[in-house]
Every structure is written in C-alpha cells, then in structure tokens.
Amino acid sequence: MDTHRIAFVASPTEEAQAALAALSARYGDVPPDQAEVIVALGGDGFMLRTLHRHRARRLPVYGMKLGSVGFLMNQHHLDDLQERIRRAQATVLRPLVMEAVSESGSTATALAFNEVSLLRQTKQAAHVRVSLNGVVKLPELICDGVLVATPAGSTAYNLSAHGPILPFGSPLLAMTPISPFRPRRWRGAILPSHSEISIEILDPYKRPVSATADSNEVRDVVEVHIRESREETMTLLFDPEHGLEERILNEQFEL
C-alpha cells in the first residue's frame, strides 16, 4: 500500500493539540516542504488559514474536524489515516483575487478562498455602484455591505446573509447584499465564475467602506475589483463517505 509523507498542522485548541500528538506519534510528521499531503486539525477557520499559509506549495490538504464548524473537514479518527488519504476524493478550489484601491491611491491585492466582503465602516450605510464585465448593473446599491463568495464560501458568511448555496466545483460565484436598503427587491445574483466584478464606493469620505478577502482587510477603499484566479489552486481531500454534495443539499432545506 502506498504511504504518504504527512505534515500535520493543528489549531491551538487543547483538543486539536492532543490529536496532533497522537497522530504524529502513529504516522510520523515531516515539515511541509518535505510532505506530500497536509493534514489540518481544527475547524473551517483553521482550514482557511492553512490554505493561505501553504498555498505556495500547492499540496493537497486533508482536514479533520476538531473545531466548532467543520463543513470543509472530515471526521476525526485516529485509525487508518493513510488508507483514508489514499481513498480520498479531490476537490479543486480556485480562490478569488481582490484588488482594492484605497483613498491614498495605493492598491492592495489579496486572495480569498471563501469570500470578498465590503462593509460600511461607520453608522451610515454604504452607497456603491456595481459593474459586471465593464457594464454597470446597479448604479446605486445602498446597504451595510456586499460580498462575493466562492462555492466553498457559499455556506459561510454568504449563507448567513441569506445568499445561495453553490455546489462545490460549480463554475459559479454568489454576489449577496448585506442588509440592502435600496433597491429593496434586489437579493443578489449568481454569476459565472469568469465574471469580472467592480464595485465603486460612492461618497467614500462621508460613507467609508472596508474590503476584506477572507481575513485580509483593507480600509477606506474607493473601488474594488474581484475575479476568480486563473493561476492559483488548492486541493481539498474528502472521504468518499463525507457526503459533501448531500450536506450541501441538506443545508438548503434546514429551517
């Protein structure tokens, strides 16, 4: 049977650190630059940090749930890890690229595996203009914010903002407003993943807005451009019995 050189990474919680010690003792542990696969121990938030931290190596990542939320994780078991990795099904994630221009004129670029979100910085609602592939689609959206989510991120902040759940692997993005005031009936859109999205901040000095790609925040932005990366990918590994597609379907019928 093939064996894999594993690099274990774990969140700082007591439970995850105990699992790290037990798994390392049984299967060995090598540095990420010598590994063939990364095993991440924690919740979905830790999985996101792992994807960002190790994206340069582009190693497949197999997660085990040792946190409060584990949609991107497999169940935690000590036994048969090598066999589980061998049988795992691969899902390729393609992150979003955010280019945020601030009031100072500087441009910050960041990646988001879950979502890019724009949020008001003060008590006043944000006023933004939304363009798609160079064409203005919403001349003025008044809201607390707006986000663009990948399929992987559609069950996170996007779902909490009443956005649609997108199947893993689908060539789609979800654009979802956060507490929209006007237009009152606009509840978002499902976009092709090749879409080029531009969001311009109207009156940024009176109504400042921040932009965040996963956990990377840029404050006082005046425009933000979002597209799917054409170069970057990361691969998640799931047990065949993980039932990711079934879980996605079930999420849509939970009350």
TrEMBL record:
Positions with a binding annotation for NAD(+): D44, G45, R49, N114, E115, D144, A152, T155, A156, Y157, N158, L159, S160, N216
Please name the catalytic residues of this protein. Answer: D44
Q: What is its main location?
A: cytoplasm
Q: What does it catalyze?
A: NAD(+) + ATP = ADP + NADP(+) + H(+)
Q: What InterPro entries does UniProt report for this protein, alphabetically?
A: ATP-NAD_kinase_N, ATP-NAD_kinase_PpnK-typ_C, NAD/diacylglycerol_kinase_sf, NADK
- Where is the protein localized? Cytoplasm
- Which keywords belong to this entry? ATP-binding, Cytoplasm, Kinase, NAD, NADP, Nucleotide-binding, Transferase
**Which cofactors is this protein said to need?**
a divalent metal cation
The cross-references to Pfam families, in alphabetical order and at most eight, read: NAD_kinase, NAD_kinase_C
Enzyme Commission identifier(s)? 2.7.1.23
Q: What class of enzyme is it?
A: transferase
Task: State a single Gene Ontology molecular function.
Answer: NAD+ kinase activity
Q: Which PANTHER family match?
A: NAD KINASE (PTHR20275:SF0)
NCBIfam families on file: PRK04761.1
Stated family: Belongs to the NAD kinase family.
Role played: Involved in the regulation of the intracellular balance of NAD and NADP, and is a key enzyme in the biosynthesis of NADP. Catalyzes specifically the phosphorylation on 2'-hydroxyl of the adenosine moiety of NAD to yield NADP.
Q: What is this protein called?
A: NAD kinase
Q: State the species of origin.
A: Dokdonella ginsengisoli
